[in-house]
Amino acid sequence: MEVKIPYKPRVIQAEMHKELKRWNVLVMHRRFGKTVWLINHAIKVALTCELPRPRVAIVAPTFTQAKRIAWDYIKFYAGVIPGVTFNETELRVDFPNGGRIMLLSAENPDALRGIYLDACFFDEFGMQNPRVWGEVVRPALSDRQGSATFLGTPAGHNHFFDMLQIAKSQVEEGSDDWYWKICKASETGIVKQEELDAAKTTMSEQQYEQEFECSFTAAIVGAYYGKLIAGLDDEGRITRVPYDPAYPVHTAWDLGVNDSTAIWFAQVFRGGAINIIDYYENGGVGLDHYADILRQKDYTYGDHLAPHDIEVRELGSGKSRLETAYTLGIRFRVVPKMKIVDGINAARVMIPKCYFDADKTAIGLDCLRQYRQEWDDKRKTFRDHPRHDYTSHAADAFRYLAVGLQSREVMHKAPQQTALNEYNPFAL
């Protein structure tokens, strides 16, 4: 039976439907219609995949975005297919051939484990936790040799930019598995010129270049640390930074309860230089897991820095995480309580003193680049607090590192053991 879906792609959109390979990176300007485009391609894959019970995922940055934007579109376009059913609670569409499209959120990567996929579409990949791809989706595609398409508008030199560079290099080397395309508003003709001219009058040049001309070099508007980290890159401070066994490694933690825990690993040298040698993030596991990670890395540790809420007793156990950590051999030092804006300023002061290991801290660095102020869409201005998303855990942990290293107060709940007892990391 032939089914006609109420979707009429523009010429450039139709070309992209035909050109897709196994791995695709598509950079699209604002108002290109990327969500509608990817939904209709997802429907096509779910209906035409020759494998039994096809599974297609559309991953949005947040659950709210998935439900508010993509869900209405998919109900509209897939609703004309006889026998299709919609599960509103799970944001799932089931087709009469056994195929299924799932709308998923990147907010909790660990919740996506255990699924198999024939195709996955990342909507606004640059705004998502990169762990979702490497740790969850890529393995889920392996047994059925599924495909992945990364879509979005640029947001600085982040993991979306890195994926584009991989795609370009693979195509240059002659790979038949990769495809990439950049769609600028000045070239597609999708947004009328008069509308683009009007946008230029109300947007900064950086905003316009990023949103409509797909510029990855434009500064991220509202980013707290973007320019500072770009400065480090220009100075060659994001490079290979080896561990120096002569100095202890200090860690700074953002401890998640139902979400991710982030840990920075830093060495402080006399004279003020700070080497950020490592970063680790995970979720859905207990403190015993992180204690094992510390042992596996085999560093000589100094201070383990944590926020004040580590002292709060949990309802289930009656113990604080500070006490639990102590039994696992982790002696935390609680950093002084400080307003977020003051902590951000402390981090800003510290960043120019830092060297970052390019490989081991890549995920954390990406988070710091993207960490930004919350935008108030009603008032058309930035709020005075950060936006909460996947970048928050790394950024919060880094803020605790800055505040902890800045402070000279001794706040140990128990004697702190270090490999070099005479070494004072704060006597710089």
Counting helices, strands and paired strands, the structural category is: alpha/beta
Uncertain runs: 408-428
Average the pLDDT over all residues and give the rounded result: 89
Tell me the number of structural domains. Answer: 2
Please outline the major beta sheet.
8 strands, mixed
Summarize the helices and strands and which ones pair or pack:
Layout: H1 11-19, E1 23-28, H2 34-48, E2 55-60, H3 63-78, E3 85-87, E4 92-94, E5 100-105, E6 119-122, H4 131-142, E7 147-152, H5 159-172, E8 178-183, H6 185-188, H7 193-202, H8 205-213, H9 226-234, E9 238-239, E10 249-254, E11 260-268, E12 274-283, H10 287-297, E13 301-306, H11 321-327, E14 332-334, H12 340-350, E15 354-357, H13 362-370, E16 373-376, E17 381-386, H14 392-406
Parallel strand pairs: 1-7, 1-8, 2-5, 2-6, 6-7, 9-15, 10-13, 12-15, 13-14
Antiparallel strand pairs: 3-4, 4-5, 10-11, 11-12, 16-17
Helix pairs in contact: 2-3, 9-13, 12-14, 13-14
A few lines on this structure:
By secondary structure, the protein is an alpha/beta fold. Helices cover 35% and strands 21% of the residues.
Description:
The chain contains 14 helices and 17 strands. A hairpin with a 5-residue loop joins strand 10 (249-254) and strand 11 (260-268). The chain has an eight-stranded mixed β-sheet, sandwiched between helices. Strands 9-15-12-11-10-13-14 form a seven-stranded mixed β-sheet. The chain has a two-stranded antiparallel ribbon with strand order 16-17. It folds into two domains: 11-213, P-loop containing nucleotide triphosphate hydrolases (Rossmann fold, 3-Layer(aba) Sandwich); 226-406, Nucleotidyltransferase, domain 5. The protein is of the alpha/beta class and 428 residues long. Helix 13 packs across helix 14. The chain starts with 10 loop residues before the first helix and ends in a 22-residue tail after the last helix.
